[in-house]
Specification:
Largest sheet: 3 strands, mixed
Strand order of the largest sheet: 1-2-3
Radius of gyration: 15 Å
Strand content: 15-25%
Distance between the termini: 43 Å
């Protein structure tokens, strides 16, 4: 399936931004305690052309808890999708299926910086 890329349309971009904003609010409202004291940021969202599948990249701080937090979130995907549906139900006919990934770009940049110091 083809996802948001250079040839994406305006609707995909708008929907992806709205989902990113709403997911950020959902994670913020759940609080850090729900995820073992970790802070979660939704870095970016890509959505399929038919708006049925959304891939969300998350950044977790502290990064040593990232895998555990991702597993918790993946276990709660159905509930998170339900909450998202309550927020975007009036704008979207279909609430997209959610898939979560870890965004490790900050860890990668930190690693490069450490390598450059030596």
């Amino acid at each position: 399936m083809k996802f948001l890329g250079a040839e994406s349309n305006t609707r995909q971009l708008k929907v992806a931004r709205q989902i990113q904003k709403d997911l950020s609010e959902i994670f913020r409202n759940k609080g850090m305690a729900a995820f073992g004291g970790a802070m979660i940021s939704v870095v970016h969202v890509r959505i399929s052309p038919d708006l049925s599948i959304a891939h969300a990249w998350l950044s977790v701080f502290p990064s040593n808890k990232a895998q555990d937090v991702l597993k918790k979130i993946q276990g709660q995907t159905k509930g998170i999708r339900g909450e998202l549906g309550r927020r975007v139900g009036k704008q979207l006919r279909i609430v997209p299926d959610l898939t979560f990934f870890l965004d490790d770009s900050l860890d990668y940049a930190e690693r490069i910086e450490e390598l450059l110091k030596t």
